[in-house]
Amino acid sequence: MLPPLVEDNPKYLVELEHVDKHFGNLHVLKDINLRVKKGEVLVIVGPSGSGKSTMCRTINRLETIDSGVIRIDGQTLPQEGKELAQLRAEVGMVFQSFNLFANKTILDNVTLAPIKVRGMDKTQAEREAMDLLSRVGVASQASKMPSQLSGGQQQRVAIARALAMHPKVMLFDEPTSALDPEMVNEVLDVMVELAREGMTMLCVTHEMGFARKAADRIVFMADGQILEQDTPEGFFEHPKTERAQDFLSKIL
Ligand code: ADP
Ligand code: MG
């Protein structure tokens, strides 16, 4: 019999293998191994200072690594150059602070990168941007400036702006932590919807309701290490390590 033409290996969109990183003497990522399948939603939790943000930032090379390998859709992330810019464009990122361009309209915020980086035609970019803005519920704000929007609206624009690049994976680093409480859900709802549509997502968040609803897997980090990976049920009901038990007792 002939071997199959297509291997039925699960396809990993993000892979970290033996990733180490220091900030000076601080060993901030210790032998991180993580594989994220296409369509998977990971929620990354852990105490403050455990390296969650740093790990996310290495995935689009906002931070370099000391050793190990990071692959996006099978391609090794290089240290620099044109290839890096291309791979970076595959990874959308949404931060705690909304980081919109303050002197550009909402529409321009969303179309800027597709036009500049993807070389997209302006009319096409604007059509897609309006679609995305209506998906996140802020189409009526398109001609306004960021400062005229609420925090929740700005964060939804930030999500639309990341999606406009057609990323293969979306990283969220505490996207609701800076929001007034009444605006948290409008942002989480957009993320839940995105997860349902099959987007591959890595989300650092303390929103455990979201984690239970949307996560396929919870990754628990402490002291620069991944200590546990489990389903939401498994992690919340039966945390294995003392660190995770301690963490959960403080937040639940
Ligand atoms: P988390 O997101 O889990 O709170 P971080 O990844 O932000 O953790 O930080 C992990 C550790 O690395 C912390 O001790 C933090 O102070 C330190 N750190 C983060 N960024 C830098 C930096 N640019 N320079 C030096 N230390 C840093
Ligand atoms: Mg952080």
Automatic annotation (TrEMBL):
Keywords: Amino-acid transport, ATP-binding, Cell membrane, Hydrolase, Membrane, Nucleotide-binding, Transport. The keyword Cell membrane applies. This is ABC-type polar-amino-acid transporter. Its main location: membrane. It comes from the Bacteria. It is found in: Cell membrane. Residues 14-248 form the ABC transporter domain. It catalyses: a polar amino acid(out) + ATP + H2O = a polar amino acid(in) + ADP + phosphate + H(+). It is a peripheral membrane protein. Belongs to the ABC transporter superfamily. It comes from Bifidobacterium magnum.
